[in-house]
Design brief:
The protein is mainly alpha-helical. Helices cover 51% and strands 8% of the residues. It has a single domain, classed as Orthogonal Bundle (434 Repressor (Amino-terminal Domain)).
């Protein structure tokens, strides 16, 4: 059985960002983070705080469930 710390998170942040015609820099500025942070989240290399997830959801008009989900085993 997999431990909770082993769970991987998948996201659709890039798709939602592109739908709103935002660049990584534009989204980062609205969210109060760096472009690098947005890039790392999109690449699945950084797990944002709940606060940042909620902010991104508000900016992109998406729910947490639409932006972030548990990655299924491959």
């Amino acid at each position: 059985m997999t431990g909770m710390h082993d769970i991987k998170i998948d996201n659709s942040l890039k798709l939602a960002r592109v739908e709103k015609s935002l660049t990584q820099s534009g989204l980062a500025e609205l969210a109060g983070v760096t472009r690098q942070t947005i890039g790392l989240i999109e690449a699945g290399k950084y797990n944002p705080t709940l606060k940042l997830c909620l902010i991104l959801g508000l900016i992109l008009d998406k729910s947490l469930e639409e932006l972030f989900r548990i990655k299924e085993d491959e």
